[in-house]
Amino acid sequence: MFKTEYVKNVYANLVEKNKSEAEFLQAAQEILASLEPYIAAHPELESKKILERFLEPERFVQFKVVWTDDKGNYQVNRGYRVQYNSAIGPYKGGIRFHPSVNASIIKFLGLEQTLKNSLTSLPMGGGKGGSDFDPKGKSDAEILRFCQSFMTELYRHIGPDSDVPAGDIGVGAREIGYMFGQYKKITNEFSGVLTGKGLSYGGSLARKEATGYGLCYFTNEALKALKDTDFNGKTVVVSGSGNVAIYANQKATELGAKVVAMSDSNGYVYDPNGINLDVIKQIKEVERARIVEYTKRVPGSTYVEGSRNIWEVKCDIALPCATQNELHLEDAKKLVANGCIAVCEGANMPSTLEAAKYFIDNKVVFGPAKAANAGGVATSGLEMTQNSNRLSWTFEEVDNKLHGIMVNIFKNAYAKAVELGNKYDLVTGANIAGFEKVCDAMIAQGI
Ligand code: NDP
Ligand code: 2IT
Predict the structure, then answer these.
(1) Which ligand 2 atom is nearest residue 164's CA?
(2) Could you tell me if 220 and 236 lie in one domain?
(3) What is the DSSP string of 309-350?
(4) Which residues lie across from 81 on neighbouring strands?
(5) What is the CA(168)–ligand 2 centre distance, in A?
(6) In what order do the strands lie in the sheet with 125-131?
(7) Is 49 one of the annotated active-site residues of the chain?
(8) Are residues 80 and 154 in the same domain?
(9) Helix/strand/coil percentages in the chain, nearest 5
(10) Residue 384's pLDDT is what?
(11) pTM of the full predicted structure?
């Protein structure tokens, strides 16, 4: 798997210390494979134990969240925050509420976030948090009580200049609002301690759209550079139907593509006429219902059970925007056999290691998550700047900045990939481009 003794040993020790953490080890394995040639070219980094220093999170907090449901019963969940790396700025990264959340998932997300945030070129370190709380089927009052209880512990670990959480799966503007309200109540401070806030209390225009829009800006740039084409006239499949998926669909459509399929964790809908996004928004953002509803409202559309089946739909461009490991090697083979020329990741680590390798080997434009979905956190960075300066920019101003950041991320990752001899290997390109600055700052600070 690895070529040098140093990297082999680092990985063996990591496995030893984190045996049961499959997702964390998967993310670390990919990063170590990318950094190996870089470390070999800079042998002084081994004596400085730079990989060991980079891979160990600075702090990991786990806590109890007790709340009462609408029947008056006590419920107990587990909360987490990993403060992974603060070499280049305050910890920054989302909060995820999903029953699958555990230490492994929080740590893989925190590790990825550290390199992603570095790629944005903004001064943000990496963090991530969440809970195994399942928001599905909960009333608004239950969500409120859970968020308040979660923040009653989390508040002591975060702050506008130390750690600034945001949304992720299961956490959108509603949950951010409830958490912000509780933080303010406890600390008596109105600050930019969270991003993704509502527009009436310090949120940034275009933050809601940013991850999906940014993904399409990145994809368009990569299509131009690697395939001399763009979104115009292409058929697109977007997995998921949450925040990232909806706004990826919106921007891809604006850029001239037709999105024919979207999914949720139960299955996918196919609409040969192009998915009607107003119907999806009504079902997902307003009613919080299942995607199968779409077929009852849009004639000519069909539903297929099983979320991974979405990769059987023929397309030019695939945008996985649901969750980790939602796209396996056999799915990658189906996509390539059906003529897919680009796969760019809106979700974090949606492709398995084998699937990602298959795309690169087959000269598919493969945009790895930490580069392709960095538009969300980049715009969170812009929200922090607006909060510190007590002003708010127009939608166009934020969107233009986001566009510039995504083009820049692509260029930096692409330049590294070209330098290393495989222009399709944006995985290695992004990992090295992100790592250089973090590595330099860690050495300068002796951390
Ligand atoms: P949402 O909660 O808004 O939407 C999540 C979507 O993914 C839903 O359609 C959900 O379906 C589906 N999904 C979740 N878990 C699974 C699963 N185990 N199997 C299949 N489908 C699943 O989250 P976001 O859109 O914010 O996040 C989506 C992805 O994008 C995540 O990987 C997140 O880490 C990443 N991301 C998010 C950013 C942001 O700004 N929000 C920024 C960068 C990355 P269902 O409703 O059935 O659960
Ligand atoms: O994975 C991610 O980059 C996010 N969930 C967004 C984090 C943020 O701080 O905006």
Answers:
(1) 9
(2) yes
(3) GGGGS--SEEEE-S-TT-B-HHHHHHHHHTT--EEE-SSSS-
(4) 61, 129
(5) 6
(6) 59-68, 74-85, 125-131, 91-97, 163-166
(7) no
(8) yes
(9) 50, 15, 30
(10) 98
(11) 0.98
Q: Is the CB of 219 under 6 A from ligand 1?
A: no
| Residue owning the nearest CA to atom 28 of ligand 1 | 322
Q: Is the CB of 195 under 6 A from ligand 2?
A: yes
Ligand 2 centroid – CA 138 distance (Å): 24
Averaged over 204-224, what is the pLDDT? 98
- Nearest C-alpha to atom 9 of ligand 2 is from which residue? 93
83 CB near ligand 2 (under 6 Å): no
Q: For residue 376, count other CB atoms closer than 10 A to its CB.
A: 30
What mean pLDDT comes out for the span 317-328? 98
165 and 269 assigned to the same domain: no
Q: Which atom from ligand 1 is nearest to the alpha carbon of 170?
A: 2
Q: Return the ligand 2 atom nearest residue 196 CA.
A: 10
Torsions phi, psi of 373, nearest 5? -105, 15
Point out the domain boundary residue: 367, 396, 412: 367
DSSP-assigned beta bridge partners for residue 63 = 79
Residue 398 belongs to a domain = no
